[in-house]
Design a protein that fits this description.
mainly alpha; about 65% helix; globular
């Protein structure tokens, strides 16, 4: 995502979720998907992803960042 390749980053995060469903990085993949969609200016879909993140991980420290977007 640092190189502004947001679609590619999204695919990698989605792949991580599919191939490693029990990974400790799962939390960051959900937030990464939401961020990459937001950076693609697909705001409605990004809001949905941020809401999904807050529902799945309501106590995570990144929840405050996710709430900022909706």
């Amino acid at each position: 995502m640092k190189k502004k390749k947001h679609e590619r980053a999204q695919r990698y995060f989605e792949r991580l979720l599919e191939e490693y469903p029990d990974s400790i990085h799962r939390i960051y993949a959900f937030m990464g998907i939401a961020d990459s969609i937001y950076n693609q200016k697909r705001y409605d879909e990004a809001i949905f992803q941020y809401q999904k993140f807050t529902e799945l991980y309501p106590m995570h420290s990144a929840v405050h960042s996710a709430h900022f977007f909706f």
